[in-house]
Amino acid sequence: MRSTKLTLQLFAGMLVLAIAAGQDLNAQAEAQVTTLLKTDVAGVDGKEWNVITVELTPGAMDTRHFHPGVELVYVLEGAGFLEVDGKPPVALNPGTVAALHPKHSHVLKNTSQTQTLKVVVVLLLDKGQQHPVLAKRGTPPKATEQNNSTRTGLIF
């Protein structure tokens, strides 16, 4: 009984703080994801390309997740942030490109209050792998590779 009361009080407190801060309680809704292409990688057995668009409404954020394969993110429109566990947030604007190593937990946030954030995501996966995988906040990335690239774009 006491733990139920405490849980309700904590929930009510969080609700009051969110309203006071002007947060949209629906802002953490999942993104609208559209599959554009899913096909085998030519000349490579057991691999497939998945090309999707992800759209976040103004002020919304995606669910923290990771993909089991390599991921490329290209921003088509809008403004936001990409947060990868263990890294500082990166500003997203049209034309921004980011590459994520497999199993790097991340989340997209739309910082605009008026415009949709729309990105194209290209995934290289083992054939038949599921994506995305939900991740708890603070889950450390599995890969520990350094970004030694001199090319433009962001690599995590």
Oligomer: single chain
Structural class: mainly beta
Output the CATH topology of the largest domain. Jelly Rolls
Count of β-strands: 11
The total number of structural domains is: 2
Q: Considering DSSP H and I runs of 4 or more, what fraction of the residues is helical?
A: 10-25%
Number of helices: 1
What is the CATH H-level superfamily of the largest domain? Jelly Rolls
Kindly report the spatial arrangement of strands forming the biggest sheet: 1-2-9-4-7-11
Distance N terminus to C terminus?
Answer: 46 Å
The major sheet is characterized as: 6 strands, mixed
Contiguous runs where pLDDT drops below 50 for at least 5 residues: 3-28, 137-154
Strand content: 35-45%
Instruction: Compute the CA-based radius of gyration.
Output: 18 Å
Q: Determine and state the CATH class of the largest domain.
A: Mainly Beta
Task: Explain the overall architecture.
The longest helix has 19 residues, at 2-20. The protein folds into two domains: 1-25, no CATH class; 31-155, Jelly Rolls (Sandwich). It contains one helix and eleven strands. It is mainly beta and 156 residues long. The protein is globular, with a radius of gyration of 18 Å. The protein has one helix at 2-20, and strands at residues 32-40, 47-56, 65-66, 70-77, 80-84, 90-92, 97-100, 106-110, 117-126, 133-134, 154-155.
Observed structural traits:
2 domains; disordered C terminus; three-stranded antiparallel sheet; globular; mainly beta; six-stranded mixed sheet; 156 residues
